[in-house]
Amino acid sequence: MTMSITIQSNTDTVLELPGLVGTLGPGKTVTVPAMTEDLVRAVDLGLLLVPSGAEPPPGLPPVLFEHRYPHVLPLSADRAYYVRVLRAPGGFHDGTRPRDFVAYYGDGDGMSCAFSDDGLAWDNEKKVSGIAESGYHVVCALETPDRLRILYWDPDVPDQPYNMAGLRTAVCNPKTDAAAFTEDAACTGNLVTGGGDPAWNRGHYGPSFLWYNPEPTSIPGRPFTWRYALLFIATTGGNDSLGLGYSDDALDWRLYGDGPVLSGLVDTQPWEGDNGYVSAAHVERLADGRWWMLYSGGPAGNAGIGYAWSWDRIHWTKASFNPVFRSGDGPFLERCYTPTLVQDVDGSLLLYRSGRDDSSYRTFVSRLRAQTLDWQDLLAADHLGQGLAPRSAVRRGRGSEAERDAAIPNPALGDEWFNTDLSGGGKWEKFTGTDWKRT
Fold first, then answer.
1. pLDDT tens digits, residue range 189-243?
2. SS3 386
3. Residues of the chain with pLDDT under 50
4. Could you give the CA distance from residue 27 to residue 11 in angstroms, rounded to a whole number?
């Protein structure tokens, strides 16, 4: 793939780097045809920024999700939304035995957690202890096998969302009890302005995504050299976007830059409307060094899920095919938001996202199969009565026939629920056994 990538020096000295012809002065930019391993390493160290350029990654994830087990949480709690899932073999003790998966989520009255051995079937749901009673909007970082940190939002703090103290942090030993937290404390810093001025970061609704760096160098102005970097949900009180902060202790936070790193009001897309939101997000990395993000957004923070990608985690490009899921009519489509991903034992990614009907909030799971293929699948028969036009099954893309067939949901394996129009509106149907047609 031919690229044209703009890189920019983020230092006050002259840079001379492998893979870079000549030198690069402070703040200067240059265009390169491709990102080498050395240039990606320089970006990770904060020496370079990548403000623009390059085509989107091939086979943009998510390409195809299968929906074998659509509803996974909650078990008995009133709700399950703003979920975060972690996987570590035997890493999370549920009070009776070690488990491979733990999920933390808002339950409508604070935060609950549940446990699983495969990420699909969950049990032992319980309240999280040791944190603020109404806290939720959680993000997680497994710092070591016996130390798990969370950040979350406490809506009961006075003057929310315009008070920095609504952001809180706590830790637990997940090998002892993944539901019991200690060291709960309010955060400080300058992430929000507060007051009456409707700045983009006048207030916040807590964290959106958390990175942990075990070997920090803590260089001012280079957020990812610090021990913690945080995407947070900034708000004017009438619009939400993603801001970036950094910290060495997860308590005192510094704001990066003077604007959001991703906003529905910048580089707007039709699905976002006139007042586009960006809120809860999850970020993963591709093999070539690029980062990709699924984020809640649209004309409200719960109106769908978009996709964006970046080289430096500061300059993000929205995918042209957004949204990948959208709220609408149908089962649990009144809202569609709060994506989180976890890598399964086979290397595939499990996607958890929240949906809402008239009275219930539920979390659904899908598996990302075919991360590098461009297959799209449309089915006939409007099984859920959502007014969808009948269509024949279509398999499009590139790759061998075997790769194609491996990417298609297989009813014989239990692939029942799926999104028939992934990039065009989040339309859910149930496959009842009709044979696939080949075209």
1. 999 999 778 899 999 999 999 999 999 999 998 999 999 999 999 999 999 999 9
2. coil
3. 1, 59-69, 370-399, 404-405, 407-439
4. 7
Token readout for 135 is 């806290």
Quote the pTM value: 0.84
CA distances from residue 402 to 70, 183, 280, 368, 437 in whole angstroms, order as listed: 26, 52, 36, 17, 16
- Main-chain dihedrals φ then ψ at residue 70, nearest 5 degrees: -65, -45
DSSP tag of 297: E
Locate 268 and state its tokens: 């707007």
Q: How are beta strands 291-298 and 167-172 bridged, if at all?
A: unpaired
Residue 359, phi then psi, degrees to nearest 5? -140, -10
DSSP 433: S
Residue 253, CA atoms < 13 Å, CB-side half-sphere: 31
Question: Which residue in 87, 55, 89 sits closest to 286, CA to CA?
Answer: 55
Would you state the torsion angle of the CA atoms of residues 404, 408, 414, 417, taken in this order, to the nearest 10 degrees?
A: 170
d(CA 434, CA 101): 34
d(CA 119, CA 289): 27
Give the span between the Cα atoms of 339 and 349, in whole angstroms: 12
CA-based nearest residue to 207, from 250, 177, 238: 250
